[in-house]
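Hi R.,

Here's the chain you asked about this morning:
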Amino acid sequence: MTGSSENTLAELDSFIEAGETRRIEQAGVVALLAAQNRNARAAQRTLHEIEDALAALRARRASLWAIGST
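And here is the predicted structure, written out as tokens:
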């Protein structure tokens, strides 16, 4: 891989790690609201958005890795 691809992959890894941390925190918020019998729809929507963003980041990372490994 070129230096540029390695930097981009490292940046994506950093974004994915931060996103995973945020996903775990948001899942906790959803669980807490549910345990308190409160409306968790907005929190669930945010969780789904985080999960969608993580999926996109992982797909981008896989694509860049595949291009760099050829």
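One quick note: Helices lie at 3-35, 41-68.

Cheers,
M.
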